[in-house]
Amino acid sequence: MTKPSSSTPRTGRCQCGNIQFTVAGEDDYVHLCSCEDCQSLSGGPVMSWVSFPLAGLKWTGAGGEPTWHYTWPDSRRGFCPRCGSQLCALDDGADSIAITLSALGNPDDLIPVNQSYRGNAVPWLAPVPDTRTL
Description:
mainly beta; seven-stranded mixed sheet; 134 residues
């Protein structure tokens, strides 16, 4: 699979299509997260994330921007108020936004390179190995 260039915008949406967006720029740190918040918000053992430059984000759907809920003192999650889909996470003062891979349609070219909060991971699902080159 050929990876889109960083100048090619990607599109995403919630499950019902009320909240839609485009992101442009270089993707960063595709990973899974097993923190308690990701587990409870997703209803599953992990969530999958990728970050993009905040400057490359545009909310394009009829629903506008998602509804925000703080899950940490300085970090909030964006979700659709109509269908409840979690779309993104944004830290206060950040210059990038984390987007769920599911909101992007789980593109084949975005492959997780690590898993956060391994200590919370369920024992029956093998963790993603850390394949980052440092």
